[in-house]
Automatic annotation (TrEMBL):
The keyword tRNA processing does not apply. The record marks Y242, Y285 as: Lowers pKa of active site Cys. Keywords: Transferase. CDD domains: GST_C_Omega_like (cd03190). One of its GO terms (molecular function) is glutathione transferase activity. The active site is at C53 (nucleophile), Y184 (proton donor/acceptor). Residues 161-288 form the GST C-terminal domain. Glutathione binds at W86. It holds the Pfam family GST_C_2. This is Putative glutathione S-transferase.
Length: 342
């Protein structure tokens, strides 16, 4: 997951302390001009992104919506990791078939043999060297939209429309601070006061989103944007994980009319729900966070079939892809047993 979630020695919550995310990343970028030494080249890079992780799930969605599957390959670590690294335990022989490594840590150490921080996803790995090019999760999705534009599929949506740029940035900032990261500040709080402060900020933001989405189909403008992707990956984990495991329990998602219908609308849109693996999501949080869930027992619920019920959001106007088209069938489908989608 993003920095700060790769716990030290299996610990994620520090008694008596508020949770603070480590926001130091490998900030070199893969760009059109190759300014940082990593020029955009079809086939050169591998996106390593665990389905379990909300920050990585963003990158998987953006890659799929933009149709970058033929130019940027995807490596999928399993849902659990130890204190050292995410591992490729789902692949034959426990090795990534392109990078030839068992642990993502190996690619980080190729970049810096003394790399001192958490081994996080998403990461883009340069296959010519086997080293991580970047793990800056927020910048990765922006660059997939802007720097890889020449390789987008015909009909790819504009996830960063210039006319709405300032509003997208404003919405993204609050959603990240109080919602995407806010659930972690609740879940990993080691102090009652810190937990309650994070909880109150989280729910103030959720109420703001509920009101905003009551009268508009998407967060910004009349089409899907980066802002919707960033919120969706938190909402889809709400009832399976955050409501109970992270103590964000004022309301379930299913009890928030606008947000629940909005989340279902996105889930049923090609490129969103077909990237979500509910079994991996639950296994990651409940099995890895043993200081929060000591038994490692994974909840059997909730019922996933409700994700496919009619959402009725069409009445608010807007079209998901604007003048574009939906992506085709997924190249890397989710295990049918792990999704309610047919």
């Amino acid at each position: 997951m993003a920095n700060g979630e790769q716990g030290q020695g299996g610990s994620y919550s520090v008694e008596g302390e508020a949770y603070t995310r480590d926001s130091n990343y490998i900030t070199t970028r893969v760009t059109r001009d190759g300014e940082d030494g990593f020029p955009v080249e079809p086939g050169r890079y591998r996106l390593v992104a665990a389905r379990a992780c909300p920050w990585a799930n963003r990158a998987i969605i953006v890659r799929r919506l933009l149709g970058l599957e033929d130019v940027l390959s995807l490596g999928l670590p399993g849902p659990t990791h130890d204190a050292r690294s995410w591992t490729f335990d789902l692949d034959p022989g426990g090795r990534d078939p392109v990078l030839g490594i068992e642990r993502l840590q190996e690619a980080y150490f190729k970049r810096d043999p003394e790399y001192p921080r958490g081994i996080t996803v998403p990461a883009i790995v340069d296959t010519t060297t086997g080293a991580v090019a970047t793990n800056d999760f927020a910048q990765i999705t922006l660059d997939l939209s802007t720097q890889w534009r020449e390789h987008h599929r015909p009909g790819a949506p504009d996830l960063l429309p210039e006319a709405h740029g300032a509003e997208i940035d404003e919405v993204n900032q609050r959603v990240f601070t109080d919602v995407n990261n806010g659930v972690y500040e609740c879940g990993f709080a080691g102090d009652q006061a810190a937990y309650e402060e994070a909880y109150d900020r989280l729910w103030a933001a959720v109420d703001w989103l509920e009101e905003r989405l009551t009268t508009r189909r998407y967060l910004v403008g009349d089409t899907i944007t980066e802002a919707d992707i960033r919120l969706f990956t938190t909402l889809v984990r709400w009832d399976p994980v955050y409501h109970g495991h992270f103590k964000c329990n004022r309301s379930r998602l299913t009890e928030l009319p606008a947000l629940w219908s909005y989340a279902r609308d996105l889930f049923q849109t090609p490129g969103f729900g077909d990237t979500v693996d509910f079994a991996q999501i639950k296994e990651h949080y409940y099995a890895v966070h043993r200081d929060i869930n000591p038994t490692g027992i994974i909840p059997k619920g909730p019922d996933l079939s409700t994700w496919l019920t009619p959402h009725g959001r069409e009445s608010l106007g807007g079209t998901p892809f604007g003048n574009g088209t939906p992506p085709g069938p997924p190249r890397e489908p989710v295990d049918p047993a792990h999704t309610p989608l047919p």
